[in-house]
Amino acid sequence: MASSHDAPIPHIAIENTHSRFMLSIDLHGNLNMFDLERGASQFANRPKGGDGDSKLFDRINDSSFLASSLDGNENKRHALVPKKYSPTFRLKASLGALRYCCWYPPDPGMFITGGFDQRVRIWDTNATKKLLDQYNVGFPIRCCEMPETFGSNHSLIAACGEAPVVRLCDSISGSITHTLIGHSANVFTLAWSPTQAFTLLTGGDDSTIRAWDIRKGKWFMAFDQERTLDSLSSNRRATRRIGWKRKRDREAKRNIDVPRAHSGCVTCIKFARDGRRLFSTGQDGRLRSWQSDGGCELFVHFEHTGNGSRILRFDVSEYDHCIAYPDRQKVKLYGSKTGRVIQVLNGHFETPLCCAFRIGTQELYTAGTDHQILAWCPEAVEKEMKEAWNEVRRQRQQACNAESKNPFIDSLGFSTDDDNWSDDSLSGLSV
User: Fold this and answer.
1) DSSP assignment, residue 96?
2) What is the model's pLDDT at position 428?
3) Residues 112, 99 contacting (CB under 8 angstroms)
């Protein structure tokens, strides 16, 4: 079977409405969609590996997660993990490299892609090759997202990339409505606030993370790695006396003395599900935790990482308990509040680039430069799935036995194999 991807996979996205479909893109412009429900029983019926596979299975089983491959290639050594998925459909979505994909938040009937061809495209999920709309933003795209805030009053798509600006595209009018200017270097990542529909956060090559009010078109806060909760309260008292708003506007125009969030380029930012905290990473190898309202660091000590890739994408679990972070040839699970390494997942043969948690389950999906997508499931969940499947089989067997033994029919003395509707004694009578 042909491989699902023949290039590094920079991003995967799982829709949150039903948590069933997943998108994956590669640097050759190909897009695949997977139906995750097709592999729901993969861990219950997991086959045992052969002699050549035992080392990999032992290495994976040493952790509390088990892996299965979403790649369709059975000839490569990457396919030593048990279950193989096949994509629901494949699409050549761009002539250049794709860098980001996301679902339309209200309905998974549409999805969005962006890449180095400078275009944000909206696709119809049902008609796989139907392009609904596209926008030329004028620069190669690294990230594009829509807000997932319930009941948001706008349908804007924010796009950023190889330019110091952010474009806002209106999916209803079909035009670019806003251009956010404020960064002094390229903007590589962005994220919409889960609680405030008009608040957008951006991070880029100038080492800053800025919060924008898209209604005004200006940034109103910059995250500072030296700011604490105590200094934040004192600064709020001081800003009332010196007129911080006028001072902030002057600094925004000059773009000087803007607080830095990282010592290097900011590569990825991600909100917690409740919107109270923000997590960011940069080329300085640091993973930081922030208070989203005040822009001050919470000083959670995460272990130093060695992955300085600019296309790194980490993810936060459903209840904000852990963070999946690609690091070299493994994926680390950090405690979001303690910063400790909970688990180290070994399964990729090259550097993983992106992670995605599946809401409603404890499954984790990772992809990277080895052209593979691995699905991870805790051993406890695997045991529960096996018990559930055994219980379903037992109930079905009991139902079949109950149908074959009916006490009412047995009390009448009839046999289920006899023909009880005909009588040979009446065969010679005529009316």
Assistant:
1) S
2) 43
3) no
Helix (H) or strand (E) holding 21: strand 21-25
Element (H, E) at 407: helix 407-412
258: DSSP letter: P
The token pair that represents 41 in the structure block: 């029983």
Alpha carbons 172 and 154: distance in angstroms, whole number: 9
E strands within 29-174?
30-35, 65-69, 89-92, 98-103, 110-115, 119-124, 131-136, 141-145, 156-161, 163-170
DSSP 428: T
* Cβ atoms of residues 143 and 177 within 8 Å: no
**Among candidate residues 90, 88, 200, the one with its CA nearest the CA of residue 144:** 200
DSSP 84: B
CA distance 107 to 18: 9
Whether 135 and 116 have beta carbons less than 8 Å apart is answered as no
The pLDDT tens digits for 287-329 are 999 999 888 899 898 987 776 678 889 999 988 889 999 988 8
